[in-house]
Amino acid sequence: MAADVRPLSPIVRVRNLVRQFTLKGVLNGVDLDILKGEFVALLGRSGSGKSTLLRALADLDREATGSGDIRVPERLSVVFQDARLLPWKRVLGNVMLGLDGSEAEVRARRALEEVELGAREASWPSELSGGEQQRVALARSLVREPELLLADEPFGALDALTRIRMHGLLKRLSAVHRPAILLVTHDVDEAIELADRAVVLEDGKILAEVSLDLPPSGDPLRARLHAGLRSTLLGLLGVGEGGHDEPTLRDHAGPEPVEGAFAVRRGQIRLRPGKGEEYFG
Ligand SMILES: Nc1ncnc2c1ncn2[C@@H]1O[C@H](COP(=O)(O)OP(=O)(O)O)[C@@H](O)[C@H]1O
Ligand SMILES: [Mg+2]
């Protein structure tokens, strides 16, 4: 077997994953690697199979049939669009669910403080706003110190301002806990804001992988690169800004992309073989 020359070996490894419901093929041979601590956004049109892929990774897809290899770490947590808190347990009880040992309560309290809900531990879920409930769900996931966090549109039901606050929170939590994260989202800006890499699903296959490496905020290049990534991703999703006259990253970077001068470098954006064109090819 050839030696793995990459600096980090993947913590998630999916090969030739096929999933179908009755006669309908939903995933038609998905390959995906996620590195330890890497934040990956999974984009795709509605019905493209994003949730099916996430559920397969979480081993929650008993209705589907299929084949392929999935390797995921044992310690994984899942967050959905709805917080799925148990209404008959108080907030602290919800975070402690499934934890055992004498430390459970201490850890759950610490997790609630991390999501800035330490003062609400005795509340019932129904007394919390949607955003607060999602923060409890995040605390419940992270208290287990997962190596992999799977999140299916976790902010999809929140208003815009709450969503922005949740972005900040998730960024801080992921910097502290460093789980690998697979975030399903239909929001291109959310993907760029949060993730290291975007993976675009189409027709049950991975159409493209786009590095979302941006210079730090305050860098004058950041806004231009952000705009370039945005139009690239929207183009890949076939919405809005897409089309031939759209500025691409090549335009933003100038006719000759300068190696090292931009966070997006030659070869970082690539379409999968068999899908034709290569960006920066
Ligand atoms: N439990 C199910 N039974 C039958 N069909 C399903 C089931 N779950 C998903 N599908 C179908 O699989 C396709 C992909 O669904 P899904 O993975 O939920 O897409 P996405 O999350 O990208 O919107 C859709 O056409 C959907 O109708
Ligand atoms: Mg979905």
Low-pLDDT stretches are 242-268, 270-281
Strand order of the largest sheet: 5-6-7-3-8-9-10
The number of domains is 2
Task: Give the full name of the CATH homologous superfamily of the largest domain.
Answer: P-loop containing nucleotide triphosphate hydrolases
- The radius of gyration is 20 Å
Average predicted local confidence, pLDDT? 84
Under CATH, the topology of the largest domain is which?
Answer: Rossmann fold
Number of helices: 8
Dominant shape: globular
Question: Helical residue percent?
Answer: 25-40%
Structural class: alpha/beta
Question: Which class of the largest domain in CATH terms?
Answer: Alpha Beta
Largest sheet: 7 strands, mixed
Distance between the termini: 29 Å
Catalogue the ligands.
adenosine-5'-diphosphate, magnesium ion
Short overview:
By secondary structure, this protein is of the alpha/beta class. The chain has 2 domains: 10-75 and 146-219 and 272-279, 3-Layer(aba) Sandwich (Rossmann fold); 84-144.
Characterize the structure shown.
This protein has 281 residues and is an alpha/beta fold. It has two domains: 10-75 and 146-219 and 272-279, P-loop containing nucleotide triphosphate hydrolases (Rossmann fold), CATH 3.40.50.300; 84-144. It is 30% helix and 24% strand. The protein has eight helices and ten strands. It has a seven-stranded mixed sheet with strand order 5-6-7-3-8-9-10, sandwiched between helices. It has a three-stranded antiparallel sheet with strand order 2-1-4, covered by helices on one side. Helix 3 packs across helix 4 and helix 4 (130-142) runs parallel beside helix 5. The two termini are 29 Å apart. Adenosine-5'-diphosphate is lined by residues 21, 26, 44, 46-52, 63.
